[in-house]
Amino acid sequence: MSLIPATILTGFLGSGKTTLLKRVLTEAHGQKIAVIENEFGEENIDTDILVTESKEQVIQMSNGCVCCTIREDLRSTLADLAAKRRKGELDFERVVIETTGLADPGPVAQTFFMDDEVAENYLLDSILTLVDAKHANDQLDTRQEARRQVGFADQIFISKTDLVDEVAVDDLVHRIKHMNPRAPQRRVNFGDVPLSSVFDLKGFNLNAKLDIDPDFLNEEAGHGHDHHDHDHDHDHDHEHGEHCDHPHHHHHDDDVKSFVFRSDKPLNPAKLEDFLGAIVQVYGPKMLRYKGVLHLKGSERKVIFQGVHQLMGSDLGPKWAPGEKKTSKMVFIGIDLPKDILLQGLEGCLA
User: Fold this and answer.
1) Residue 250: how many CB atoms within 10 A of its CB?
2) Where is the composition biased (Basic and acidic residues) (predicted)?
């Protein structure tokens, strides 16, 4: 049987996770979805859709969706669902895990890599983070959970943009881009999130989407166009075509930041493995997401590498095309990571 795709839905309290889930569950999309809710969630899906009197852990809904709450840990719930599916007791095609608003998505994501039984049955598709435009700045200023949720995201949905002015939304977009440049952002009103931007994003399935994002790490690419001749009063990188003439950007010194390592020289595989192993030992808990495409000495193929906290892995990608420039590109997203130490260390791994 093919692996069951799983999506982690996260976001701070009140960001609209349940609204999005209700829409996904009740829409006639023809997909059968199992939803796993952390039962200490502040707002349970069952308020409207499910029969609240039910004591059963798994509830089958009329459109083929299934809901269950986590009564024990996630690993056993996933294993239980997969077993019921194998026996034909439940029929579903994918899983959505809704975390509580105060959760760190890291341990949830790690479950898919650490546990053999889960890894044999499921493929982690992506982490979706909802951000409430009205309250986000305050939450990001005061709550590390909110910053972590942004740092982990493969896709960010900004909700409630109708409640704030365009300048504030623009500020928020810049701030989030600075924290996590690799997650595309989409403004949403929950009536209209296309399911194509919720499922099958392949945020974690590396070989399927080699360059990881359409504009992989564009935030430092091609900024040679005289950006240095005017002062920024903020700390954000800009995309092509963006102007830096908005004086309203406030400088947020978020502890979740990202930076990129690039090199056209090949990396020495043994040195790189030793260095990354040592870094992960020390800084793993603060390393939210890191991934890249590597040019390793002696390899004719691209090496795709990624990690969550202390867990990292690599896959062989396709061969470098004739005439293609062989470049290593890596992005690190984490909490107060020592950029200089990491960049110097990676330089030291060049062959």
Assistant:
1) 11
2) 220-245
